Amino acid sequence: LEIDWQILIDNEQDETLKIQNMSINYEVTDVKNSDTSNKKFKSDMTLPKVSIEGEELTELNTSIDSNYNGLYNKFKEQMATADSNYTYIVSYNKYENMVGSKKILSLTIYLRIRDDDTKENTVEQITTYNIDLATKETLSEFDIAKELLGKDYKTIIKSKVQDYVVDKGMMKDSEFTYAITGFESFYIKDGVF
């Protein structure tokens, strides 16, 4: 019987790192921003502000704030003479996960522009951020996909998307084509990609 000591050592180190990472404290607080100065286009935003071990992630928080407030201000000017009244709505959800030995905070930020007269969304967009709480770095969705699904993650994701589209009757199996472009938004919830 030959024992691969390196595998045993690596597994023990991974388990130790996992236990250490599980104890990382973080906080996500709401930053509310509403604007009714333009009657045709108003805002109702709740954005996340992330801190890890008491340290604010200034670069991430500033990026999120600038992105959504900047987009609102751009639209606000353009919509001043719109026929209908609209509301720019931003909200978010957060999910905590362990991916291997990494503790990951996933944020999904949901942007909608609602036509207040018809009560229908005219624009919907979801953006995701996946943060490694130990390194305080934002991870790409594909780094996480590779860790969760292995090196064939693109094939697995394509297959799952195809199964969903075909099962829902949106498209025939023979008509389905899909390639991962790198622009898709994925997040983790309860350890599932």
Structural write-up:
This protein is α+β, with helices and mostly antiparallel strands. The chain has 4 helices and 7 strands, in the order αβββαββββαα. The protein has helices spanning 5-22, 58-78, 141-149, 153-167; strands spanning 26-35, 41-52, 55-56, 86-99, 102-115, 120-132, 137-139. Strands 1, 2, 3, 4, 5, 6 and 7 form a 7-stranded mixed beta sheet that branches. Strand 5 (102-115) and strand 6 form a beta hairpin. The protein starts with a helix and ends in a 26-residue tail after the last helix. The mean pLDDT is 82.
Main attributes of the structure:
33% helix; seven-stranded mixed sheet; alpha+beta; 4 helices; 193 residues; 7 strands
Indicate the overall shape: flat
Structural class estimated from helices and strands: alpha+beta
Mean pLDDT: 82
Give the radius of gyration.
21 Å
